[in-house]
Amino acid sequence: METSKVFVLLFLLSTFHFLVATCIQFEVGGKSGWEVPKSKDDYNQWASTNRFKVNDTVHFSYKEDSVMVVTEDEYDKCHSARPIFFNNNGNTEYKLARPGLFYFISGVKGHCPRGQKMIIKVLEPASPPQPSIDSQKKNGAAAMAAAVSSATVMLCVVSFLAVFLF
């Protein structure tokens, strides 16, 4: 097999992967990391300026602390005896696996009441507009084609090119 064909195929596959699976890793606290903030609302202000999607991750860097995912009630109380998630290894990564609200607090006594807590809202996945039944009846094949996702189209194109190149 020619080297140029391999490179073309690898490029197309990597482009397809990028278009389909673009997840972002967010660094909580930036360079300073996960620590008691200067202002009680620093983390929530930071979270509100970002757009979190399903399968994005949040990364926490810290020394002598911990990260807990808790319920809304535990978040409000700044305490959890049984967190949904707990880690204290100094390098925590948490995958936002569903849409909705995630409540994070520090597990170190006194840190949460001083503002080391955060709410992240993960957006619902965008779904392509679905054609109505009337539209499908009127437009037939055109309406059905509109329902095909871009990922399916890209997969077909990559498959065709792979067959064509080999």
Can you put this structure into words, describing what you see?
GO terms for molecular function: electron transfer activity. It comes from Rosa chinensis. The chain crosses the membrane at residues 141-165. It is found in: Cell membrane. It is built from six helices and seven strands, in the order H-E-H-E-E-H-E-E-E-E-H-H-H. It has two domains: 23-122, Cupredoxins -  blue copper proteins (Immunoglobulin-like, Sandwich); 133-165. Helices cover 36% and strands 20% of the residues. Helix 1 (3-20) packs antiparallel against helix 6 (150-165). The longest helix has 18 residues, at 3-20. The strands form two sheets. It has a four-stranded antiparallel β-sheet with strand order 4-3-6-7. It has a three-stranded mixed β-sheet with strand order 1-2-5, with no helix packed on it. With 166 residues, the protein is an alpha+beta fold. It has helices spanning 3-20, 42-48, 72-77, 133-139, 141-146, 150-165, and strands at residues 25-28, 57-61, 67-70, 85-87, 91-95, 100-105, 117-122.
The CATH superfamily of the largest domain appears as Cupredoxins -  blue copper proteins
Count of helices? 6
The CATH class name of the largest domain reads Mainly Beta
Give the number of domains: 2
Could you say which overall geometry the principal axes of the C-alpha atoms support? globular
Uncertain regions spanning at least 5 consecutive residues: 6-10, 15-20, 139-149
Q: What is the strand content?
A: 15-25%
Q: Taking strands numbered 1, 2, ... along the chain, how are they ordered across the largest sheet?
A: 4-3-6-7
